[in-house]
Every structure is written in C-alpha cells, then in structure tokens.
Please model this.
Amino acid sequence: MPDILLLHGPNLNLLGEREPGIYGRQTLADINEQADSLCSSRGATLKAMQSNAESELVERVQRAPGDGVGFIVINPAAFTHTSVALRDALAAVSLPFIEVHLSNPHAREAFRRQSFFSDLAQAVICGFGPRGYEVAIDAALNQLGFAGTTA
Ligand code: DQA
Model:
C-alpha cells in the first residue's frame, strides 16, 4: 500500500515559538506525531520532512514516486507564494496532493493571496491550525484505500 508524504516548508521548524498568535503553540514535532499516529491507526506509513531549502523540497518530491509515496500533504509555507520550482516538481510527479496552511493567508497581507500550488492541488485547507493536517491526512488515507474509523 502507498505511503503518505507530509512536507513542511521554511520556518515551520520554528512552530511553537514562531508568531504564536498566528500559528499557535503546537510544535512541528507535535504535528508530525499526530499525523503519524493517525496513519498508524489506519495501517498506513507516514513519511515527514521539513526543510528551509527549496532544492531539498524539490528533490524530495522528485524521489516520492520511486519511494512508495501515493499522496502528498504539503504546507509550502513562504514557498507557496514564490516557488515555481516546487510547483513544477509536484506537476512533474503527478501525485495527488493537498495544500495545507495553519493560518488563513487570504486574511493576511496581499502577497499571501497568491499560491503557486492551489490550482494543481486536489484541495486547499487553511485557517484551521494543526487540525487542517488531520483533515488532509484523513482524506488521503480514504483515497488510498485505508479503511476509515469514521465516515
Ligand atoms: C503558512 C502561510 C504562509 O503565508 C507563511 O509564509 C508560512 C506559513 C501557514 O501555514 O499559514 O510560513 O503557510
């Protein structure tokens, strides 16, 4: 059965201490742990990675199909608004993906309203904080055929 890849973009390693009024108090380790236990509870494997480097994220996406990944959940963070390279990598591998944001970028500065990913994404979840990852992973598990505990 295919694995789920959870990708986190730049500065998300600072979650918990980074602008808590916007991003909350949960750390990236907390988020990965919740995602991992959701996957394990359904018999699936989660692979998670955070990088501040665009090239590392591009390379991880490129490796995904050969590495047993069937679905990507990604918070591209600031690369959302800048990275044609990461967009092209996702288009190249043509794996389904869901774009997640902790905050609602549409309610913030104007430059955050543009995403290089949303038109390719199967879905975009924003503004729900860490809960957004759970919703995205639940949807990915359902689509990959891992039996659900809820509807
Ligand atoms: C973010 C929103 C982006 O605009 C910002 O650059 C981030 C985090 C979010 O999760 O709300 O780093 O992707």
Observations:
- The longest helix spans residues 28-41.
- Residues 11, 75, 77-78, 80, 101-103, 105, 112 surround DQA (CB under 6 Å).
- The chain has a mean pLDDT of 97.
